């Protein structure tokens, strides 16, 4: 895999040198390549061999391809030209024959990678053939894509992504041909990370380059023979399993409630009017489109978020407003001072804050489940908090509000608290100072911010109830403003629960570069926790606990505030 990165770097350098677009950039890139070669192999022998081979490669190419004739044929060539097919049919076979000209360069690169030369050189040649195939398919469409302005911008994104989504030092230290399940998993995670970043580009040609290089390189390993249960997949499945177990249990409880309601002669008509259906479909769709446009969610997160938003909105518009408040405020919090978070977070996502389907489940899954129970048990509509007259709707309403307050408070604490606090936080379990970004690390500012995050959710719920519930019903109900306070309490409680679980059941370590990592590895110093849960699972469990505890707290203290 390390050889792949070097090879990618050398291809970029060669492209710059051939086009003479930026000589200074070519020199800088060559020096960078030399430094990487020395760092990996302890010598610049491979670099010098590749450099010396360039004139010979040029002579070989001139012998295989009539460059002057090719330039003449390409003069009037354009994306809409009818001569495209004839041009590429004529020269693509010659391009394939010319791959042999690069043998000496491939050997030099192989020496830099530390891989076995006789095994890795054929891999590099296979990559070269793959690049030729990419150039020639669809009558050279790829070539015309590279001439567009967005291509160079996306190429820069790819280069940055390769750096940000790097594989672990342990994987780097193992030869490509000896990769096992752990290394294959590490590489696959890196690939998915790069794919997510490059997917945001408007030039598909860039990702096509990456796919060709990656797939051909990985053919040299035995990863295609290894059955990988990706760690990310395992961790993403865990919230789904928790929901899969909790939903049938909740439905069983609901059946009991319905049976009791029938015995109590509760015959409320709950036919949902068309206007509510229209609003509950239109607003979530607009919210989803906004999230995709602003890169707040990816496609999977948007699809699942749309379903959650529809259920929440049909049940009560107050629930949808809580979701929207959480989405907008947490997305802004994620982008706040993103350049500082990059310094100490290994899995930093570039400040985009894009949520996938797993994050949607973990942050909105519990609230959506309770909203479904609210709809089935209490019917649709906005209701005031009144534990005396409307116990079920009040209990579920506080639970839903608290689930969002927990998620928002924890997000504000982790995204804002880490960059607003000057000193290092302390571990919540033993009060020892730990590096910023450590799971379970808290600070006074972080706790205050988590309370404010919950307060924002409580306030949004209060305002919605205040302006959607009939004024006569509100006059006959208890005062509603305490829900703002309980929102803040839920945010603080959720953040504390999240920190306790994170400090004990989530691994935290610091790698040699000073970044916080969530898995053990070579050179990683353990800080706290055992590797049982990941961040998504911790968020889901915290949300569930907070949503189940807060209704009882609110009922007990509502009239005492």
Automatic annotation (TrEMBL):
Question: Looking at the Swiss-Prot or TrEMBL record, what is one Pfam family this protein matches?
Answer: DUF92
Localized where? Membrane
Which UniProt key words apply to this protein? Membrane, Transmembrane, Transmembrane helix
Q: Does the keyword Membrane apply?
A: yes
Q: Does the keyword Hydrolase apply?
A: no
Q: How does it sit in the membrane?
A: Multi-pass membrane protein
What coarse category fits the chief subcellular location reported for this protein?
membrane
One annotated Gene Ontology cellular component of this protein: membrane
User: Which family is it part of?
Assistant: Belongs to the TMEM19 family.
From the Swiss-Prot or TrEMBL record, give the protein name. Transmembrane protein 19
Supply the source organism for this entry. Aedes aegypti (Yellowfever mosquito)
What gene makes this protein?
Answer: 5576161
